[in-house]
Task: inverse folding
């Protein structure tokens, strides 16, 4: 299910004096199974763009095509999009409400009209997928740790079996181990389950390590759309948007500045280590 | 559908009325309302309307906003008019079957209408020109003497301002949760009442959880910063009377004096103005 954003524009408060163009004429195409990193300074319109892509808000102009269909067309049933595009909001644990973890995860598939058996099967699979043990299934979601709650919330989306998964800073507020677990999970969903993933992140390092393609937003506009190595060549431009290169890349640039002839396009620790080895030996 | 939680109804503008001390506005509105209730003759209403008109001119709020409040009481107004016109006994003007319309009836209806309009518009102007926070500050200061009787004035004021502060936060939170649950396929617009109420559970529960969490965070943060109740606490923007506030109090005092004078003398003025059988009597 390819996603196409066609001239997407969204203006907050269009009826009032204080207008904010949060998304400004954004156009792109995302193919099946791609892992996309969406980055941008705070307030650049990332969350707004995600909500547009998942049909939760209607664009001021432009539209989104999912699977070739205009999802904002008059005769299109927007509810049907919720099963296809799963969106995990920032701090998704704030949406938990049921008495038990299992019931909460059942909420999505039940709303999609699946019968009890299918619903429970979907919920079970989703909970297993995010790596939760059977013990917690019948606990109250409010008694879990922060990281566990986050997983339950993500499972609540995965249980609807979306083809496209959209995540808004899923690692916010987690410790390094928790961050890595969530990112590995997302990577798995993309690589093994073939989901299309759009990941919003503030951390260049995370994005550099995991994604196939980077979209950089600044002030509502899509400024850079490239594979990570290409994207990080725009050092000055990125800094102008208030974004920094991955730490590894910065380190490589420093090393080069002191006269060691390394290439500066390494974006992961592993690549950097290899490059340094290559130069030293 | 959940977005339109209005925040009081403050209208941002830069006018003398906006800058007045909230205590002046509170006391002024109160006296004004009392004056409308105590005296109900046309002279007092004329003076009252004059005062209101001048405040309306000064306050730089679009007229539409000031009259918006009337919509809410439109029904009550219609009711009062109908009742007064048809059920007040007195000199009959027309008769039509069981319906009879008296001079007194019309007079009462008109007076009630004027009174309600003045009341609502004056209250609207106060809330339109004063932020909820300033209102709370004003109330706290005005009610401070009640502390002598052990009334928790500061605490109530603090509760009010926290509640006001939380309204936009909660409305934003509601918006977020509605979106998150919609993405999970929840429908909030079901036609059936039971389903509609049920559909609110996924919204209400997270909202309460987050409200409680925020409340306890706030309590901790306040304690950590040394909050210990109202004793000896100072304000960031203390209320201080300025020249314009004293001028307003003087105008207010004059208004009260004039109204009381007119109220007492009205009978004589009427007698003076209306020789026998003049059409003018219809108005008095
Ligand atoms: N509900 C709203 N009403 C009015 N303006 C809004 C609203 N939500 C966001 N905005 C404005 O739209 C712009 C984009 O906001 P958005 O939340 O999409 O940014 P973001 O890139 O997700 O930021 P962050 O990284 O902080 O999450 C900002 O300027 C913001 O002030
Ligand atoms: Mg955001």
Result:
């Amino acid at each position: 299910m390819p996603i196409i954003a066609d001239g997407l524009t969204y203006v907050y408060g269009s009826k009032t004096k204080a207008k904010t163009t949060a998304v400004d004429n954004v156009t792109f195409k995302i193919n099946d199974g791609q892992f996309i990193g969406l980055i941008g300074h705070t307030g650049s319109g990332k969350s707004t763009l995600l909500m547009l892509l998942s049909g939760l808000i209607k664009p001021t102009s432009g539209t989104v095509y999912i699977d070739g269909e205009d999802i904002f067309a008059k005769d299109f049933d927007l509810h049907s999009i919720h099963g296809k595009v799963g969106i995990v909001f920032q701090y998704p644990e704030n949406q938990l409400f049921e008495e038990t973890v299992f019931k909460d995860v059942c909420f999505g598939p039940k709303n999609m009209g699946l019968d009890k058996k299918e619903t429970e099967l979907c919920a079970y699979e989703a909970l297993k997928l995010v790596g939760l043990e059977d013990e917690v299934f019948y606990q109250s979601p409010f008694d879990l740790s922060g990281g566990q709650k986050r997983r339950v919330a993500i499972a609540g989306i995965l249980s609807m079996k979306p083809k496209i998964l959209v995540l808004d800073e899923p690692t916010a507020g987690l410790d390094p181990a928790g961050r890595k677990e969530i990112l590995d999970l997302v990577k798995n969903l993309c690589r093994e389950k073939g989901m299309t993933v759009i990941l919003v992140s503030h951390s260049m390092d995370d994005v550099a390590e995991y994604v196939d393609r980077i979209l950089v937003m600044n002030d509502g506009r899509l400024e850079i759309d490239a594979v990570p190595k290409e994207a990080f060549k725009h050092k000055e431009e990125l800094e102008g948007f208030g974004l920094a290169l991955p730490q590894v890349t910065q380190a490589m640039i420093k090393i080069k500045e002191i006269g060691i002839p390394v290439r500066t396009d390494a974006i992961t620790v592993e690549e950097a280590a290899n490059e340094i080895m290559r130069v030293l030996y | 559908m959940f977005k339109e939680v209005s925040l009081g109804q403050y209208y941002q503008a830069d006018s003398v009325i906006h800058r007045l001390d909230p205590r002046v506005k509170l006391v002024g509105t109160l006296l004004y309302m009392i004056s409308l209730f105590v005296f109900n003759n046309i002279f007092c209403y004329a003076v009252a309307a004059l005062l209101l008109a001048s405040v309306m001119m000064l306050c730089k709020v679009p007229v539409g906003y000031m009259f918006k409040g009337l919509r809410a009481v439109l029904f009550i107004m219609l009711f009062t008019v109908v009742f007064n016109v048809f059920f007040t006994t007195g000199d009959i003007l027309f008769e039509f079957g069981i319906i009879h319309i008296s001079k007194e009836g019309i007079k009462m209806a008109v007076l009630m209408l004027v009174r309600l309009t003045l009341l609502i518009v004056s209250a609207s102007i106060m809330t339109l020109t004063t932020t909820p926070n300033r209102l709370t500050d004003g109330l706290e200061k005005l009610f401070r003497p009640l502390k002598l009787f052990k009334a928790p004035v500061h605490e109530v004021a603090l509760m009010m301002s926290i509640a006001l502060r939380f309204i936009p936060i909660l409305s934003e939170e509601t918006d977020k949760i509605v979106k998150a649950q919609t993405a999970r396929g929840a429908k909030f617009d079901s036609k059936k009442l039971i389903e509609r109420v049920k559909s609110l559970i996924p919204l209400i529960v997270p909202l309460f959880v987050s409200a409680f969490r925020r409340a306890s965070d706030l309590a901790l943060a306040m304690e950590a910063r040394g909050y210990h109740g109202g004793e000896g606490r100072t304000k960031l923007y203390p209320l201080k009377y300025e020249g314009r506030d004293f001028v307003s109090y003087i105008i207010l005092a004059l208004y009260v004096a004039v109204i009381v004078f007119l109220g007492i003398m009205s009978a004589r003025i009427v007698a003076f103005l209306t020789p026998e059988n003049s059409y003018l009597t219809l108005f008095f």
